[in-house]
Structures are given as C-alpha cells and as structure tokens.
Amino acid sequence: MRTIVIVILLLGAAGAGLWYGTFRAQPLPVDGRLSFTPPRAAPPETMRLSVLHAGRMEAWAAMAYRGGALSEVRTFGMDAVLIEHPAGDLLIDTGFGRDVGAHFETTPALMQHTSSYIEETPVVDQLRAAGRDPDALAGVILTHAHWDHVSGLADFGDVPVWVTAEEMDFIASDDPGTVLARQLSPDIQWQVYDFPDGPYLGFPASRDIHGDGAVVVVPAGGHTPGGVIIFVAPPRGPRYAFIGDIAWQREGIAMPAERPWLMRDMVDVDAARVRDLLVRLHQMQQALPTLIMVPAHDRRVMAQLPPFHAGAATPR
C-alpha cells in the first residue's frame, strides 16, 4: 500500500483531507444492545475443529479498519479450517494453493503493485502429510469467492465446493474480484445450496449442514453478493463464527469499524450491508462474549483455534 500513501503525500493539503476522510477513526454507531440466545446444538463427541495456515500477506493496520495505525504491521493469514464430523469432513475456504503465483497474477494491477505474499504449505499437502485423503472431504464451504479464498480449490479435484446461488452468479459475472474463480470454474464441482432452515441468531434463514446444530450457515452478503457466515459449535470449548471478510481484523467487530474508503471501494460490493453486518456482529459479541468471531485474515484470532496436527507449515 506504499503507492497509496505516496499519492496522498504528493497531493499535499488535498491528500491530508483524503487521509482524514478515509483512515481516521470513526466507530460505527450502535443503537443499544440486543439479546441473543445460543441455539441448541448436539455435536457428536468425535467432532473436531482445527486451523491450517496456507500463506500470508502483510499490511498496515490502517488498511484493515478505520482508526488502525500506519506504524503497525498486521499479518493477514490465508488459512483454512477443517471441521471433522462423522457425517462428513468439511473445509472452510482453502487459503493459498499450489499455484498461488499464477493465481496472484489474476488480481487487479493495483493489488499486484502494492502487495506481496508469502507462501506456506498448501492445505492439500498438509492433509496428505498427516495421512489424510483430501479427496475424502465431503466438501469445501466458501465464505466467498475472492481469489485468496479459492486459490486452493484447484488442488482438491472432485471435492464438492459449496456456494450460494448469489455467489455463483457473482463468479459468472465479469467482476474483477472473481477472475480466478471463473478460470477455475470448469474444473470445480460446484454445489449450489440454499437456506431451508429457520432463523438463526437474528439471521432470517439458515442451513444446518448435518442437522445437529454443529455447523450452521447463514446468508451474509455485502462484501460479496452471496457471502456467508459459518457458525460452528464443537462438543467442547467455545463456539465460533467464521465471518469471512466482513471484517479483516477483529477490531472491525470490536469497535465496530469498517474498512477505509479506499479499501471498501476496491473490495466491497455493498458497503452499506457490510456496515449493517459489522454492527449486528458487534451486538452479538456483546451479548455472547464466549462466541469467538473469526475474521478470515486475522492470525491473532486464528491462534485461538486448535492447530492442525501435521507439523508446522514451512515457508518457501
């Protein structure tokens, strides 16, 4: 993001105004507290959850949420979460895949000139190293279809990839954010799903994947049209809400605070809906403090999840 800052500095007073209007702290207004009751869940005792780190990028906190510091560098993890369940193992997102170099070249030119990435061991290789058959997965559930969440799909062959109808339309569109998903699309076993189950934590509809409340998906479009939140209730320990890129870092929920205008303009298809979601998740976190909100790219939060036991990922 150095290029953006240089441009702002060159603009002088106008740049200072742009900076103030874009990056200054401005928590979103929250109208009181809401009450949330944790839905019933009966996860099997053998269910397990773990995180796999598949790559990372670095950026200033100022780029992640309004009020973040330029002096603080944050690690943006490109991770996947494995949910082991006797009815079928699932993966949430994929992180970087084996061909991340080629995949990065599908991103907009501005991103390529202002960003860099660090490879870690692809998820498919971590699974194989642990004696797991990646092809045995019941599916990959995408929080949304941006390149850093789908990069690993090419490594998983015929494993079904779960997306909403709205996200499938987004992939088929000419949006620059889904170039990679479109390129991979002919070789992906897409599984389009809807939300036949009732309200869940204030969301009007849901899909209970296994019928036991262990993994529940709700529609949460805004960052992309068909994005989702995935609620996971293990048999022991805290519950989790995997919120994708509704917020990039946990401050987005805690404050709550949206992304700076420059970033919103690049990545959010409906900034107003993202704001509404940030406020709702903030209120949910206040009412349910033991529920861990997991932004897809916050390594500090991912560190609270059990690690996948396949040996440490090795940067290369």
Task: Give a brief outline of the structure.
The chain has 316 residues and is an alpha/beta fold.
How many domain regions? Answer: 1
Q: Helix/strand/pairing class, anyone?
A: alpha/beta
Name given to the CATH homologous superfamily: Ribonuclease Z/Hydroxyacylglutathione hydrolase-like
Helix count, DSSP H or I runs of 4 or more residues? 12
The whole-angstrom Rg is: 19 Å
Instruction: Please state the average pLDDT score.
Output: 92
Task: Report on the biggest sheet.
Answer: 7 strands, mixed
Sheet with most strands: strand arrangement: 4-1-2-3-5-6-7
For the record, the CATH class is Alpha Beta
First-last Cα distance: 23 Å
**Based on the structure given, which CATH architecture is correct?**
4-Layer Sandwich
- How many E strands? 12
Order of helices and strands: HHEEEHHEHEHEHHEEEEEHHHEH
Indicate the low-confidence ranges by residue numbers.
Answer: 311-316
CATH fold group? Metallo-beta-lactamase, Chain A
Shape by Cα distribution:
globular
Percentage of β-strand residues? 15-25%
Helix content: 25-40%
Structure description:
The structure is a single chain. The protein contains twelve helices and twelve strands. It is an alpha/beta fold and 316 residues long. It has a single domain (2-302), classed as 4-Layer Sandwich (Metallo-beta-lactamase, Chain A). The strands form two sheets. A seven-stranded mixed sheet has the order 4-1-2-3-5-6-7. Helix 1 packs across helix 2 (13-23).
